[in-house]
Amino acid sequence: MFKHKTIVYTSGTFDMFHYNHLRMINYSRSLADILIVGVSTDELVMTFKPKPIIPFTERLQIIEALKTPDIVIPQHTLDHTDIVKKLNIDAFVVGDDWYGKYDYLKDLGVQVFYFPYGAGVSSTNLKKTIYESYDAQLKKEQKQKPVQIIKNESDQA
Questions:
Q1: Residues near 55 by Cβ (< 8 Å), separated by ≥ 6?
Q2: For residues 62-78, b (16+ Cβ closer than 10 Å) or e, as one string?
Q3: Smallest Cα–Cα separation from 113: which of 124, 122, 100, 125?
Q4: To pair with 128 at 20 to 30 A between CA atoms, which of 17, 78, 108, 139?
């Protein structure tokens, strides 16, 4: 049924979905006849970085809403050996921040593409920018607040 079809798998956390996520998924689509996108569960993500801001079920729904994936699945492990075998994956695409991590898939006959994620935009950087902006706003508001001097009752008499 799927003879001569190229099956491509890409995966990620996809927290605070941004244009680099979209670029990587679209690149994966350009290589694929069938595109499968794995979305990392919260439990998996917390094994290598802080818990995502957006809960797993919502991140899954965001990816499902895109027109590019044919199939969207939960990703429970960073070891893709079983998924490659079960779904006959021909190619795997992941951000180049994971460079070298998935070279073992080449031994299974899978082409591995490390997508050039580019500097700047990442969920981690977005969170940092939001935090810094919020922190700066709080400090600004604290400086602008007039200081109220409260006199005790004995001073008022």
A1: 42
A2: bbeebebbeebbebeee
A3: 100
A4: 78
Angstrom CA distances, 98 to 30, 53, 127, stand at: 21, 21, 20
Q: What is the reported pTM?
A: 0.78
The DSSP result for 82-93, as a single string, is: HHHHHHT--EEE
Q: Dihedral of the CA atoms 50, 51, 53, 59 (nearest 10)?
A: 130
Percent of the chain scored above 90 by pLDDT? 63
Per residue in 93-111, pLDDT tens? 999 889 999 999 999 999 9
**Overall number of domains in the chain:** 1
The yes-or-no verdict on residue 27 having pLDDT over 80 is yes
The residue assigned the tokens 């991140």 is 59
Of residues 145 and 64, more confidence is placed in 64
What CATH number is attached to the domain comprising 21? 3.40.50.620
Residue range of the domain that includes 49:
7-119
The secondary structure of residue 33, as a DSSP letter, is: S
CA-closest candidate to residue 35, choices 10, 56, 66, 53:
10
Would you say 81 and 107 are in contact if contact means Cβ atoms under 8 Å apart?
Answer: no
